[in-house]
Write a structure and sequence with these properties.
The chain has six helices and 25 strands. The protein is of the alpha+beta class. The protein has three domains: 113 residues, Roll (DNA Polymerase III, Chain A, domain 2), CATH 3.10.150.10; 120 residues, DNA Polymerase III, subunit A, domain 2 (DNA Polymerase III, Chain A, domain 2, Roll); 112 residues, DNA Polymerase III, subunit A, domain 2 (DNA Polymerase III, Chain A, domain 2). An eight-stranded antiparallel β-sheet has the order 6-2-3-4-17-16-15-10. It has an eight-stranded antiparallel β-sheet with strand order 14-11-12-13-25-24-23-18. A five-stranded antiparallel β-sheet has the order 5-1-7-8-9.
Length: 364
């Protein structure tokens, strides 16, 4: 194999794929990336057997072939090369020469025939989504996934399709985030699948632009593809709980706040929380929201926000991250905060189709 490729193109391909490599794998070939040059161009692939990421990148294929190289060391070498064209040339003994201007390396590889073959997936459900929009959807909910391994189905993000609407959901039992979007796929049947957290994270890293992303699903696998990218992932097995039962049917109180202002206030006030005092308090009184926090270790802080509220005084305590994270991923300038009382779930909304439900905490 002989490939000529710009350093920046090769470095970009490695950045997109290398996080699929499990550095703790005891299977030597899984520590390597697969490099392939053929009549269709040049590609880089990495896998840990749970997720596989393949990306195509512009290059000149002077001699077709394939090899594998140690992923992390190869990436380190490419990153320190001077800018310009890189030539990769592999001999019959899987020794690959890497040259760029006056810099030269030679690395031993492993037989590419040992690398796991690309799986062919016959999708039960298939639809398309603008890549950048799907990335934004995942970002709006994925922070709410659970990391409690005893509740493994909550360790992933649910994709649920019903009556023409795709609902994307994540929850850890203390907060829930969801996005609802219409899909114009007339023949698509209903489905529920759970994306692993790692797959969601990888998609958010590599998806961009408005080119169509084709999404194919079976009961245990997902495939995401476009002209430059192919991601294949196993799915989380199990049944996702009925998330809609935690969403209050109605709210007695509703206020509108400026999203950026609320983020700034929460970030400043939360500087006073500690391991022993982990909440911020939101006090609602006539025309004013006061956000405050205190701890024995650091002291106290408070900051008011003018709002249109004329109900009974209410004081609700929250983990500040549970409010900041949904606000940070929203697009609207104003957000709607709804609640009933100090102990009931509150909601955050504003963007079309988006809802985040947050459980209050006991004031510490």
């Amino acid at each position: 194999m002989k490939i000529v490729i710009l350093k920046e193109n090769l470095a970009s391909a490695l950045r997109k794929t290398i996080s699929a490599v499990n550095s703790k794998s005891t299977i030597p070939i899984l520590n390597n990336v697969l490099l392939e040059g053929d009549q269709n161009g040049f590609s880089v692939t990495a896998t840990d057997l749970e997720i596989s990421i393949k990306t195509r990148v512009e290059a000149t294929v002077e001699q077709e072939g394939k090899t594998t190289l140690p992923a992390r060391k190869f990436s380190q070498i490419i990153n320190v090369l001077p800018e310009g064209e890189v030539t990769l040339e592999t001999d019959d003994n899987e020794q690959t020469s890497i040259s760029c201007k006056r810099t030269f390396f030679k690395m031993p590889g492993l037989n590419p025939e040992e690398f796991p073959e690309e799986e062919r997936v016959d999708s039960n459900w298939k639809f398309t989504f603008p890549a950048g929009e799907f990335k934004k959807t995942l970002a709006k909910v994925s922070y709410a996934v659970s990391y409690d391994e005893s509740r493994y189905v909550l360790n992933g993000t649910l994709l649920s399709f019903r009556s023409g609407v795709l609902t994307t959901v994540a929850t850890d039992g203390r907060r829930l985030a969801l996005m609802e979007q219409n899909l114009h796929e007339e023949s698509l049947e209903d489905f529920d699948v759970i994306l692993p957290a790692k797959t969601t994270a990888e998609l958010m890293k590599v998806l961009e632009g408005e080119d169509p992303l084709e999404i194919g699903l079976t009961e245990n696998q997902a495939v995401f593809s476009n002209s430059e990218l192919l991601i294949t992932s196993k799915l989380v097995e199990g049944n996702y709980p009925n998330y809609r039962q935690v969403i209050p049917a109605s709210f007695n109180n509703s206020i509108i706040v400026q999203r950026e202002e609320m983020i700034g206030v929460l970030n400043r006030v939360a500087m006073m929380i500690s391991e022993s005092s982990t909440t911020v308090n939101i006090n609602l009184a006539d025309g004013l929201m006061t956000v405050s926090a205190s701890s024995a270790e650091f002291g106290e802080s408070s900051e008011p926000i003018d709002i249109d509220y004329h109900g009974e005084p209410v004081n609700i305590s929250f983990n500040p991250a549970f409010i900041i994270e949904p606000l940070r991923h929203m697009d609207t300038d104003q957000t709607v905060f709804q609640f009933n009382d100090e102990l009931s779930p509150a909601s955050i909304s504003g963007d079309e189709g988006f809802l985040c439900v947050v459980m209050p905490m006991r004031s510490s």
